[in-house]
Design brief:
By secondary structure, the chain is an alpha/beta fold. It has one domain: 3-Layer(aba) Sandwich (Rossmann fold). About 50% of the residues lie in helices and about 15% in strands. The termini are far apart. This is Ketoreductase domain-containing protein. InterPro entries: KR_dom, NAD(P)-bd_dom_sf, Sc_DH/Rdtase_CS, SDR_fam. Keywords: NADP, Oxidoreductase. GO terms for molecular function: oxidoreductase activity.
Length: about 260
């Protein structure tokens, strides 16, 4: 088992939800924590409990670089990067707009790219590091939420490809593909930008689905276990198994034969 004591972790979306669960799991292992979040009220509360607070909108590349410099000056080189910040945008097809696409991709995909591009060169120079990008089960098996599934599928591809290319530099990459997890992501998305929030008619069912899954602290332990195993993929349950099996079988049936 790896000795995490003294390592430094930078966690986006770290003040709440899965990010906070990851932070708590790492904190118990002696990791020094920098929690980055756009929600400054939640950040002040959570960082006061655990770690340094870093106000950050992951869409802002200049702010990302400045935050990295401040954290590394204060805590030391970042060994563990968690690109976890995200929203759950929704739009029926007839109401899709460029603005909705831009927001969804900027937070859920470009935010991950910004984290990678900010910290990866530093990890390569040091010859060590572990990056965990948060996608979703919807990144492996699409659901009808096209804004969300598009970005999350791209995060899976980014992570898998990056893992192949940076292993020789001593950097590990995992992608977290959670199913239902008991977080406040629906409420947080509405607070962040109501123009892409779920329609009120859908919210109770989605909230009930999310509450059916594990809590954030349990997920934090799952993430650490996946990192210990150097797993390419980290899951929070097996709800997606039959859908993955069906998708793989459909791929194989579609391949030409002979």
């Amino acid at each position: 088992m790896r000795d995490w004591t003294g390592s430094v972790a930078f966690i986006t979306g770290g003040a709440q939800g899965i990010g906070l669960g990851i932070a708590r799991a790492l904190g118990k292992r002696g990791v020094r924590l920098a929690l980055a979040d756009v929600d400054e009220e939640a950040l002040a509360s959570s960082a006061g409990e655990l770690a340094a607070e870093v106000p950050l909108d992951v869409r802002d590349r200049v702010a990302f670089a400045a935050a990295a410099d401040r954290v590394e000056a204060a805590l030391g080189p970042v060994d563990l990067l968690f690109n976890n910040a995200g929203i759950v945008p929704f739009s029926v097809p007839a109401e899709l707009t460029y603005d909705k696409w831009d927001l969804s991709l900027a937070v859920n995909l470009t935010g991950v790219v910004n984290g990678v591009q900010t910290f990866l060169p530093r990890m390569i120079r040091r010859g060590a590091g572990h990056i965990v990008n948060t996608s979703s089960a919807a990144g492996l098996v699409a659901d009808p939420n096209v804004l969300y599934a598009t970005a999350k599928a791209a995060v899976v591809a980014l992570s898998e490809s990056l893992r192949l290319t940076v292993a020789k530099h001593g950097v590990d990459v995992s992608v977290l593909c959670p199913g239902p997890v008991d977080t406040e992501i629906v409420r947080n998305t509405r607070s962040f930008d109501p123009t892409v929030a779920l329609h009120d008619d859908y919210v109770p069912a989605v909230d009930a689905f999310l509450r059916s899954g594990p809590g954030i602290d349990e997920v934090g332990e799952m993430v650490v276990a996946g990192m210990e195993a150097r797993s390419p993929w980290i899951f929070t349950g097996d709800e997606v198994r039959p859908h993955l099996e069906e998708r793989l079988a459909a791929f194989l049936r579609a391949l030409p034969t002979g």
